[in-house]
Task: inverse folding
């Protein structure tokens, strides 16, 4: 790599008791790229995401973001540093409206203290207005405007997925981490998602790291793909290289056994 | 913009009407009815403060009686004159700073709130790392610790004898003014983005953390603000009853407030206001069931505590048939009211 990567994992190991979920993993995400992390079920992909976003502290190794070590930092500080994520099973604030959900995302960059709106300070009011405007703008850009006043839990599934991304974008991230964005989508919807991810990268100037099972999506949007199996890196490269890599094929299809057991 | 100005005018109008009503009530109603009106205001303050902690931030806290006790004692110690204190402390001599303090009433209430918030902070730091039911049990324990401390700190609190003859400053207007202050602060807070953050913590703590919310910090904040207003409510209640003792501040008191909050709707300000009015009035009017009465020729002696049996049944019914309480998470707002009238007109 000529330029230094935005995110880098250096020999990260994450154990849960006797289970080694992530084993001596090193990978990097170049700035401005769409990078995929794939692997069969239970390969440790989500664990890697949880290490990156600060939910787990790895037993060994380092996570560096913009050259700075962020290993073991609290999740909310990692968000402040510029990493936002979505969840495999959508985690919206269900009782709040779509607009409120996005405004909560804006909160991490908010400067006025909690008591300022209580005392009606003009600067706090101005900031609140700016946040509401920014949130509405985000909803508009992600085609969620019609849902602005609706309770998040009552939105259709696809809109909930987009709202989760809108909420993540509200934190002004430089790296967006998507955990199975195409889960539960039909082919047309995942087609649309691919365009959407492209749009995110260019319009919001983002670097994107994603976990995905839908190979069409992965092969379609990712510049670079890392493949995990049992917590270990087994391959990396562009879509073409991954598609023809015998180790990857074996991990996914079970190699020679396939014919004899089928 | 038009509706914003309209709503503001209506709010002012509502407050004016309330003020006029209270002025009228103070001069025309008998003492018993005035006392009920007073209790409604105090209970509303207490319910709002617990609703902030439990309904809006999702922390199941059962420590309210403890904060109320602190508020009530601090306020009482501040407003009593040094002579009164010297006469009343018969078990042990009253200690120095307490023996000379003599402050105006409004300051004593504020001091009660601030000290309750400070205690809230001390309790919050270890306890708020717990979640769910464990938090409830831990806060319940802390409330009991506060009560036991009050019993045993005789030189400060006059121990189990309690404090009598607190000068009654809390008139109807004073109590409702404090209620308005509480309402104003909480509405401003909850309608700001910080309010959204509280609700986010209630809905999904993990997602809130990922969105950059310092969950622990905001939980502590919400808990302390709740404790502050609970302290104010306790101070007002002490002044209203003019006598306090440690036995008042048992779990039963927390339970009363909790009942109001749950019946009104967790996460609804107007729900808490409505249900504190309804439940306070019911608590008084149901005294009739404790009187001796005759049923079909049989004379039934009065049963003390019968009221609470009725209330347990009411609470059971709420839990069985209307989980979300009177209002759920909804609010009665002017906009909603006008929409409702509009629909009526068109229908």
Result:
């Amino acid at each position: 790599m000529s330029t230094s990567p935005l995110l880098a994992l250096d020999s990260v190991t994450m154990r849960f008791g006797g289970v080694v979920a992530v084993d001596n993993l090193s990978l990097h995400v170049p700035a401005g790229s769409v990078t995929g992390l794939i692997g069969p079920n239970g390969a440790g992909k989500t664990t890697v995401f949880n290490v990156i976003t600060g939910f787990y502290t790895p037993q060994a190794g380092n996570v560096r973001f913009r050259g700075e070590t962020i290993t073991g930092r609290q999740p909310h500080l990692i968000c402040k540093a510029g990493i936002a994520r979505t969840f495999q099973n959508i985690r919206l604030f269900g009782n709040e409206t779509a607009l409120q959900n996005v405004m909560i995302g804006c909160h991490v960059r908010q400067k006025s203290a909690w008591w300022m709106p209580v005392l009606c300070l003009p600067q706090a009011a101005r900031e609140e207005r700016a946040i509401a405007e920014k949130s509405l703008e985000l909803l508009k850009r992600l085609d969620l405007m019609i849902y602005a006043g609706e309770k998040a839990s009552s939105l259709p599934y696809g809109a909930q997925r987009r709202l989760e991304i809108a909420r993540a974008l509200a934190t002004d991230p430089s790296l967006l981490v998507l955990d199975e964005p195409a889960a539960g989508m039909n082919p047309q919807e995942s087609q649309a998602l691919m365009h959407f991810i492209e749009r995110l990268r260019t319009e919001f100037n983002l670097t994107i790291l994603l976990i995905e099972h839908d190979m069409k999506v992965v092969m379609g949007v990712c510049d670079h793909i890392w493949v995990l199996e049992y917590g270990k890196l087994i391959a990396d490269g562009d879509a073409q290289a991954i598609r023809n890599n015998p180790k990857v094929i074996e991990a996914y299809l079970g190699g020679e056994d396939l014919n004899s057991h089928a | 913009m038009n509706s914003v100005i309209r709503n503001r005018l209506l709010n002012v109008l509502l407050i004016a009407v309330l003020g006029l009503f209270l002025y009228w009530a103070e001069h025309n109603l008998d003492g018993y009815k005035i006392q009920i009106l007073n209790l409604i205001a105090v209970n509303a303050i207490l319910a709002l403060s617990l609703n902030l902690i439990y309904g809006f931030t999702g922390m199941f806290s059962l420590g309210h009686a403890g904060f109320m006790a602190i508020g009530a004692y601090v306020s009482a110690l501040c407003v009593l004159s040094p002579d009164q204190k010297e006469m009343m402390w018969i078990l042990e001599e009253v200690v120095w700073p307490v023996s000379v303090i003599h402050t105006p009433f409004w300051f004593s209430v504020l001091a009660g709130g601030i000290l309750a918030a400070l205690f809230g902070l001390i309790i919050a730091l270890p306890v708020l790392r717990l979640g769910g039911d464990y938090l409830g049990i831990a806060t319940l324990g802390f409330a009991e610790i506060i009560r036991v401390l009050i019993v045993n700190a005789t030189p400060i609190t006059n121990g189990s004898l309690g404090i009598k003859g607190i000068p009654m400053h809390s008139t109807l207007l004073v109590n409702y003014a404090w209620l308005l202050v509480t309402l104003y602060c909480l509405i401003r807070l909850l309608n700001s983005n910080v309010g959204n953050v509280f609700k986010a913590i209630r809905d999904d703590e993990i997602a809130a953390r990922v969105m950059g919310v310092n969950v622990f910090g905001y939980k502590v904040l919400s808990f302390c603000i709740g404790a502050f207003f609970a302290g104010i409510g306790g101070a007002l209640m002490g002044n209203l009853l003019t006598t306090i003792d440690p036995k008042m501040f048992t779990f039963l008191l927390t339970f009363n407030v909790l009942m109001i909050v749950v019946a009104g709707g967790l996460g609804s300000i107007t729900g808490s206001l409505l249900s504190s009015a309804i439940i306070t009035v019911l608590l008084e009017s149901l005294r009739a069931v404790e009187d001796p009465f005759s049923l079909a020729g049989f004379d039934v002696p009065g049963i003390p505590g019968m009221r609470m049996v009725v209330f347990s049944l009411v609470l059971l019914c709420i839990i069985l048939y209307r989980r979300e309480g009177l209002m759920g998470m909804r609010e009665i707002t002017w906009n909603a009211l006008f929409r409702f009238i509009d629909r009526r007109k068109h229908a």
About this structure: Confidence is low (pLDDT under 50) at residues 257-262 of chain A.
